[in-house]
């Protein structure tokens, strides 16, 4: 699904990339969800031995920073492609889920509580 | 990082959601990458026993469809928050990675080849 | 935790491997769970574009087969290390969960039903 | 593949559990790898907001401890089932990979270096 703005533009670029290579045949939601998980796994591998504090400064590292950015780019590419194949508007799905979470985790109840973080 | 358009708007909504609940303290890149992986795991769980063909029709299922959409919303929320904390422009990172992949997987070489699919 | 049999032996080998390299400092449950997820991501990447039927024959492929076996070895290494650090007996934890699942998914109710598969 | 000892026993229990419910049809390597990733995602979700230090004491928590143990049991169940379906001996695959890693990360070179941790 093409949306307006930067997400719509990205959706069209990723789709064109797949179509030009005749990869639509492989891009079922099942396969794309596995590819998405694979890329998230690569992202975790970059951060796994860092402390939470070190992870906050990871973009300042001349080696790790670009690698983390590239992995996040990969994750976004597959998420965009998956949403396109399922005809889901990514931003809208996220906004709807956020509104749902806002009802479940009110500001009062959730304030500062780690146990309640499930946006 | 706030970007223009729908991604910028979503980034600000997700940030406000966290700030209002004083959750910034938990939102290190390391923690957020784990939360992202957790949500991707929930997405996989919805698709794991479907055939690739069944997964293509998942949005037509009145029970599974909304669940898949909600999981994708969750994944997008954490990815947006992670990018915000790292000051990465999600759409730009994806476009850059796509351009890089276009150089590595030319249309001629990659046409229809599953082994070469690594966008 | 060392158990008897092949799991106990493996637990000790993996522990010695870490101790010899002074890696205990990095092997917190949080870090190890990320490493585990990273290796599972690599496993998914080997299988993502295969059909379920192709995945059944993956060990016959002279290139893919050894790669899949190596990824499964990596997953098992990190899972064993994680259980050791948490003092959990892997086989016992699995048997207990299986007994729990047997109560929740009786043979009669679950027979052949994909929707109910959550062992 | 049944192996001797506790792993062999577990393999047979998990296989019987699946066979009794006629779930072999769903247990392709592709599907099982997704189920494995889903369970690892649930494990990550239990640990995501903890500091590495808190994660070291997670088994002392009367609520979190049993949940973490159950998730690890689930991960082990699916890993065992996946190895069985692929006719891979889990302990042997892990030992072989560990021997391979020992050659790549010598004690001298890797001592205390996080960057080199990839057992």
UniProtKB/TrEMBL annotation, chains A, B, C, D:
One of its GO terms (biological process) is nucleoside triphosphate catabolic process. InterPro entries: dCTP_Pyrophosphatase, DCTPP. GO terms for molecular function: nucleoside triphosphate diphosphatase activity. It comes from the Bacteria. PANTHER family: DCTP PYROPHOSPHATASE 1. This is NTP pyrophosphatase, house-cleaning of non-canonical NTPs. It comes from Paractinoplanes atraurantiacus.
């Amino acid at each position: 699904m093409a949306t307006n703005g930067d997400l719509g533009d990205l959706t069209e670029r990723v789709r064109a990339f797949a179509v030009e290579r005749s990869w639509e045949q492989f891009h079922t939601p099942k396969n794309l969800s596995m590819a998405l998980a694979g890329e998230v796994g690569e992202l975790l591998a970059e951060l796994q031995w860092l402390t939470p504090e070190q992870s906050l400064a990871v973009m300042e590292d001349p080696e790790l920073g670009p690698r983390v950015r590239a992995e996040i780019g990969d994750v976004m590419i597959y998420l965009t492609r998956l949403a396109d194949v399922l005809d889901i508007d990514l931003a809208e799905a996220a906004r709807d889920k956020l509104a749902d979470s806002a009802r479940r985790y009110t500001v009062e109840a959730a304030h500062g509580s780690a146990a309640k973080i499930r946006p």
